[in-house]
């Protein structure tokens, strides 16, 4: 009996050890890097796609990206700026992804885009994803909640407790499966705790940067208020005159320079001024330049070598 009990105890210990090895192996990389697992969410820099949904029409005046969202995810983009509008049909149970207005650029229904995020998150359990919302139409949190729930994303939604200043590590978020973080620039309330008020946690550098001007390292939103994290807005705009009016347009032709040497210089300047790393490095046309490699350097990890897809992928499927 003693020997039987001893064998049983050893077997349990071995089984537990094996389970622990499997667990630690599963947590070995967080957002592509072992070193990031032990860091709290707010101490990591994330490659960010500005207006991630605005990749159609190809080479349109108001498109900010070339690749669709599944390709962005595959290429290492881990934070996504999205703009929320009411649907052209007035459907209260849906949200439309538009730029300035839906007649100018309509990125389609949010439900379709969230389905793509769910597919990726289901297949990639060690990834923490962030969505930064511009609530352009002043939609209610309950409307976001309904669309997210219908997309099956509710189990992934992370909510930082009110007043909490310490964030979990990426490994803790991954282990809890609460690894989809959402911030919104206006309209947040306590009824939907996971849709967090961006400016309670984050400040932003100026987003309107005319082509040929210096990249600023000042606090634009909320005005002159430091926060624990910040968005480095790094995308430039040119002026186009058409029929007597002037519009500001993205600049894909110079994106190699913008997202290459200029990005490195902008990050270095802002880190010196703010004494903290940028949490979200937001660019247009991320496939040009060296965004993910530069963000790896900010995180002080060796870049994993995953190169951006450069051919362009504008077909977005939901299945």
Automatic annotation (TrEMBL):
SUPFAM superfamilies, per database record: PLC-like phosphodiesterases
GO BP: any one term: lipid metabolic process
Signal peptide from the UniProt entry: 1-26
A Pfam short name: PI-PLC_X
GO molecular function terms attached to this record: phosphoric diester hydrolase activity
Keywords on record: Signal
Keyword Lipoprotein: no
PANTHER family: PLC-LIKE PHOSPHODIESTERASE, PTHR13593
UniProt-recorded name of the protein: PLC-like phosphodiesterase
Species annotation: Linnemannia hyalina
């Amino acid at each position: 009996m003693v020997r039987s009990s001893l064998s049983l105890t050893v077997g349990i210990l071995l089984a537990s050890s094996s389970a622990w090895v499997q667990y630690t192996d599963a947590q070995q990389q967080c957002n592509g890097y072992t070193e990031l697992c032990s860091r709290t969410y707010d101490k990591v820099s994330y490659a960010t796609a500005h207006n991630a949904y605005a990749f159609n029409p190809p080479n349109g005046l108001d498109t900010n990206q070339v690749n669709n969202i599944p390709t962005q995810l595959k290429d290492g983009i881990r934070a996504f700026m999205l703009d929320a509008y009411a649907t052209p049909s007035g459907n209260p149970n849906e949200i439309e992804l538009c730029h300035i207005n839906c007649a100018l650029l309509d990125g389609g229904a949010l439900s379709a885009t969230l389905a793509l995020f769910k597919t990726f998150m289901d297949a990639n359990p060690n990834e923490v994803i962030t969505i930064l919302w511009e609530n352009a139409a002043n939609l209610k949190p309950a409307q976001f909640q309904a669309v997210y729930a219908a997309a099956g994303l509710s189990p992934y939604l992370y909510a930082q407790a009110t007043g909490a200043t310490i964030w979990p590590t990426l490994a803790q978020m991954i282990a809890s499966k609460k690894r989809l973080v959402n911030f919104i620039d206006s309209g947040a309330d306590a009824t939907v705790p996971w849709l967090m008020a961006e400016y309670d946690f984050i400040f932003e550098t100026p987003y309107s940067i005319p082509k040929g001007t210096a990249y600023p390292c000042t606090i634009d939103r909320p005005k002159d208020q430091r926060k624990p994290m910040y968005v480095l807005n790094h995308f430039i705009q040119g002026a186009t005159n058409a029929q007597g009016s002037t519009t500001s347009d993205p600049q894909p032709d110079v994106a190699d320079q913008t997202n290459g040497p200029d990005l490195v210089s902008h990050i270095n300047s802002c880190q010196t001024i703010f004494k903290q790393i940028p949490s979200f490095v937001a660019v247009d046309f991320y496939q040009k330049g060296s965004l993910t490699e530069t963000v790896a350097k900010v995180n002080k990890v060796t870049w994993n070598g995953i190169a951006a897809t450069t051919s362009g992928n504008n077909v977005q499927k939901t299945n």
